[in-house]
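Posted in: Structural Biology > Protein-Ligand Complexes

Title: Requesting predicted complex, adenosine-5'-diphosphate in pocket

I'd be grateful if someone could produce the 3D structure tokens for the following input. Sequence and ligand are given below.
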Amino acid sequence: MAQRVALYPGSFDPLTNGHLDILSRARRLADRVVMAIVENDSKEPLFSVEERSEMIREIVGDDPALPIRSFSGLLVDFAQEVEATLIVRGLRAVSDYEYELQMALMNRRLAPGIETVFLMAKEEYSYVSSRLVKEVAKLKGDVTGLVPNSVRIRLQQRF
Ligand code: ADP
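-- Reply #1 --
Done. Output follows.
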């Protein structure tokens, strides 16, 4: 039987427990979830693509069901390359909705065979974003519980 592949794209700069929560939910929907780090990111990233990939690898390990990739160019092109039929995105607050809706509708127009699905993380992660975690870590605040321990240590080293 054909394997169902989902693509979970993001900046993951850095990986948070919110991302991991979405990932574990996506696992229930697909046989394989490809985590895809966006390379052509207009935001100034704190960690290089390699560092971000390493941080994810440290947590998810070498599971063939959870490959880690990076890509540049159109998301739907990459989805087709990895034979994904689902694109997974996480929704936190209403503020995520408008941008995500636009992206999902544009991607559907570009690739009608790919469905975007939105997942909600645990409530306790509903305010967690990489951006906020970086801000807090930069100001020497404690991010324990919001990111994996290995990411927390890397943040400490970076700042
Ligand atoms: P992007 O820059 O593409 O938004 P992010 O790494 O910030 O990349 O996020 C990747 C995806 O994970 C997005 O769909 C985002 O909404 C989702 N996400 C991030 N943090 C959380 C969280 N705490 N709860 C639910 N979804 C989240």
